[in-house]
Amino acid sequence: MSAIKAFLATWLFLLSGLAAVAQQPTAEWQTRLAQVLPLLGHRNWIMIVDSAYPLQSSAGVETIETNTDQMQVIRQVLSAIDNSIHVRPIVYMDAELPYVPEKDAPGVTAYREGIKTALAGQKITSLPHDQIIAKVDEVGKTFHILVLKTTMTVPYTSVFLQLNCKYWSDDAEAQMRKSMSTGAAK
Q1: What angle do CA 150, 153, 155 make, to 5 degrees?
Q2: Domain containing 42 — which CATH number?
């Protein structure tokens, strides 16, 4: 009988540990972002997602429950990226968002207006949700992805930030590749 009790106690201990990994207290998401951002670089992603976004099982995906308003998380993440010396965001959003009706998702109209302000100055690429998820799934096999779950309860509102190098522009990369193809070293 004591073997059964020991097994059950171990099983309960392991389950409580898994729950703690998946859901960290509110203030810790900011600390974790500050810790991990210097380690992230181009090809890494930070995703600010709604509350129904699934817990992914890929080894490279780290999910943190922020228990915080999505707009607040977006502003803080973009500010942290802006203050970094090494990365800039490439913003992706779900192409479905403009088609979500207010009657089916109360608050979506206000969200669409708020996100314009929160992402002002950012170029936004809209893709169908499934295409963005496919990109994330592929990237998660090799690179780290930080998923910040928010209290948002409106569908298709997740903001996906693919990180790119801040000190090397897309134009500089294209010019260098062109020079490489013609053999014109600088």
Answers
A1: 105
A2: 3.40.1650.10
Q: Is residue 118 part of a domain?
A: yes
DSSP string for residues in 129-179: HHHHHHHHHHHTTTS-EEEEE-S--STT--EEEEEEESSS-HHHHHHHHHH
In the chain, the number of structural domains is 1
Residue 60 lies in a domain: yes
- Residue 67 φ/ψ region, left for φ over 0, alpha for ψ in the -120 to 50 degree band, beta for the rest: left
- Domain containing 62 equals 24-182
Question: Which residues, given as ranges, of the chain have pLDDT below 50?
Answer: 4-25
| pLDDT at residue 90, as a whole number | 97
Which pairs count as long-range contacts for 34-40, CB under 8 Å and 24+ apart, including other chains? 34/80, 36/62, 36/144, 36/146, 37/80, 37/81, 37/84, 37/87, 38/84, 38/86, 39/144, 40/87, 40/144, 40/146, 40/163
